[in-house]
Amino acid sequence: MNVEIVTIGDELLIGQVVDTNSAWMGDTLNKAGFAVKQITSVSDNEGRIIEALEKAKQNADIILITGGLGPTKDDITKVSLCKFFNTHLVFSDEAYAQVSHFFTLRGSDVSDVNKLQAMLPANCHVLHNKVGTAPGMWFNTDGKIFVSMPGVPYEMKLLMTDEVLPRLKNIFATPAILHKTILTQGIGESVIAEKIADIEDALPPYIKLAYLPAVASVRLRLTGISNNTDLENELNTLVADIEARIKPYVYGYDNDTLPAVVGRLLKQKQQTITLAESCTGGYIAHLLTSVPGSSAYFKGSVIAYAYEVKEDMLEVDKQVLQTKGAVSEEVVVQMATQARQVFKSDYALAVSGIAGPDGGTAEKPVGTVWISLAYEGGTVAKRFKFGTDRNRNIEATALTALHLLFSKLIAV
Amino acid sequence: MNVEIVTIGDELLIGQVVDTNSAWMGDTLNKAGFAVKQITSVSDNEGRIIEALEKAKQNADIILITGGLGPTKDDITKVSLCKFFNTHLVFSDEAYAQVSHFFTLRGSDVSDVNKLQAMLPANCHVLHNKVGTAPGMWFNTDGKIFVSMPGVPYEMKLLMTDEVLPRLKNIFATPAILHKTILTQGIGESVIAEKIADIEDALPPYIKLAYLPAVASVRLRLTGISNNTDLENELNTLVADIEARIKPYVYGYDNDTLPAVVGRLLKQKQQTITLAESCTGGYIAHLLTSVPGSSAYFKGSVIAYAYEVKEDMLEVDKQVLQTKGAVSEEVVVQMATQARQVFKSDYALAVSGIAGPDGGTAEKPVGTVWISLAYEGGTVAKRFKFGTDRNRNIEATALTALHLLFSKLIAV
Q: Could you report the predicted ipTM of this complex, rounded to two decimals?
């Protein structure tokens, strides 16, 4: 069952908005056994929209459309759908009841602009959008399914989950598609490729291996498509074989994230973590606290951007700060040790570095970072040299710091 | 001059990677006067790749391709390009020299896998990738330009900036495309639409207005395409007219961000900000410190996740914490006041709330947040009720807190 996603909106083509909807839909559809074959993004232009829909109709069985359903004049998806289906807009009592219910709940009246949301193509079946004012629309024409949804991610996701996927599963029998992903940090793509070359060469035709590099990490994704084998076991065996070759670098699987994995380990051990962040400016704390339930093991953090904060809040020795500089082994070790004491935690991570773009010297160029971990009975500190881009340096530092904690947690 | 972007990679279609490359390319091309008409994402499949290239060739003058150039077996873009151009791979001495230089700089040898990076389609012109091992490729065929680049964002961006854009500008004369964007917070899309309906109705055909809603904010983007009018002045007048209707909600223009705008104001006034974050867990600090040069006005922060941290580091009254709860006006005001004193800053923002998914009560459901700002001579505190999604609540809280600071900075 081939799916094509068509995303509509000038903002996507001029890069004002990143199309995160397609990735979410691709992931969700894939897990349900539907294969997305193409994603096409076009502008708010009738000709372009209709052309994209025509091509999608040739290639796919299911065409999922997002965007261009707002109450404002730049949104022309509904009009374009009417032309494409050779129909016209009609006032839908059902859609109007949903829109007015939405406003009643919020204690306000339906404005004239929002009344227009109830004008829909005559051939559509209305899908209830519980969290927004633009209804979803379901079309079944010439044996093809078309679904039009708002571009607001929150609204699209609820419509997909509550309305679209259950209907699609009812209609189509889906083949078995399975993914297994191994998450690594601290090893390069080509080094992995050499270590597992023989395993890769011996893969059966229905299993594919992909390397997905990101900042400071590489993910290895195995995809199997087959109804005739014991796919799950076969993939699990492959995961074990690959992992045996690169064991020290593997921190998780599938949708794991390093902050979630670290959090799980801390929870199991009933231990706590605190932070003293300088160059990462709160990003490590943000990664940790993005995980639901993180208050069980994350107690708090001092973000010490200014010298005086390092002195006052973390009691870093003034003379060491002046002679060695804030970006030094001595200072980062003091930061970690003090944070652990002040917050009374089992572990404390500290980072100090030069994120850039300014502040580098010949001895300590932009991208120089010291990371320290304090634990019961000791500390460890390491120096790293990342790149020149501020936000990449912040991200690489944060993930490397969390990986240092991960290595300690699995070692003890 | 029409551009199509073709992004290649299974990871895009199964949603394991969000396609941020296209947005960056769209933005960069647009500013250079090139209009992106379509973005197509296809899997690592020879047939799909060739079909996408053929369709792009029909519709566009310039086809920019990313992805599928890694050294590993799942990357088949080069082989597909050979089929598409009816040519074959040859060993490029030029590309090999670049790849070996890359490894020499890093003190290692070229592995066998990486030697394959120098095998390129016979008809391509090599573009030097200074930060990676996969060269860019430039093709000029039947009056159409094709460029193939790696999918790693960092490598693609440098190739675009250093190689591709200068060449495109040399070849094509570009029309005038101008964008002006007004950034608002605290007002809804449809309220804005009603307030400026007459301005929108009177827009000339060569100027379009788009509403771009995001978490806690709406951006209004005016796009003008014309070589015959004084477009810049005309757009500036429209911006002023629109802004006059919604003045209190406008915090910036174009590529401004709220953290950058707030930072600029603090720098101008030579004032400083510190934070006491609870439910946002470091995200406000992260937003502020993502801005280069933020150390001039951001001194530090205490992330007080645990009750005891609120007591110990911020000296929040234990009894108030127990009787009123951490999510209360009294506590958040004490957090802001204490942070301002401890860090010796001009302003301090404090937030305390229930991000979710757990921890809500009937009286204080998930999404309940108190925000306080302490300044010389006083404090202000406000209660908000956001939604049920943890990460949306964190983002909305952070932006709302920064907007509170913004309002104070422009009022004094």
A: 0.80
For testing contact with chain A, the best of B77, B278, B295 (most A CBs within 10 A): B295
Query: Among candidates B369, B304, B277, B281, which has minimal Cα distance to A286?
Result: B281
Q: Does residue A190 or residue B406 have the better pLDDT?
A: B406
Among A13, A108, A242, most B C-beta atoms within 10 A, so best to mutate, is: A13
Residues of A in contact with B208 (CB under 8 A): 10, 74
Query: Residue B125: what are its φ and ψ, rounded to 5°?
Result: -100, 130
pLDDT higher than threshold 90 for residue A175? no
Of A10, A303, A308, the CB nearest to B301: A303
Check pLDDT > 90 for residue B108: no
In this structure, how many other beta carbons lie within 10 angstroms of the beta carbon of residue A45?
Answer: 16
Which one-letter amino acid corresponds to residue A305? Y
Q: A79, A393, A372, A53: which is closest to A215 by C-alpha?
A: A393
When pLDDT is cut at 50, 70 and 90, the band that residue A48 belongs to is very high
Question: A residues 227-266 near B, CB within 8 Å?
Answer: none
In angstroms, the CA A97 to CA A107 distance is 15
CA distance A180 to chain B (A): 12
Contact B285 A284 (CB under 8 A): no
Q: In this structure, are residues B259 and B402 in contact, taking their beta carbons and an 8 Å threshold? A: yes
Residue range B388-402: mean pLDDT, rounded: 94
Helix (H, G, I), strand (E, B) or coil at B284: helix
Please give the domain boundaries of chain A with CATH numbers for all domains.
2-171 (3.40.980.10), 177-253 (3.30.70.2860), 258-411 (3.90.950.20)
Min distance A7 CA to chain B CA atoms (Å): 9
Closest C-alpha to A338, from A352, A353, A322: A352
Cα A14 to chain centroid, rounded: 22
- The answer to whether the CB of A182 falls within 8 A of the CB of A218 is no
Which residues, numbered 370 to 399 in chain B, qualify as contacts with chain A under a Cβ-Cβ cut-off of 8 Å? 389-392, 394
Among chain A residues, the shortest Cα distance to B30 is held by A14
pLDDT value, residue B235: 96
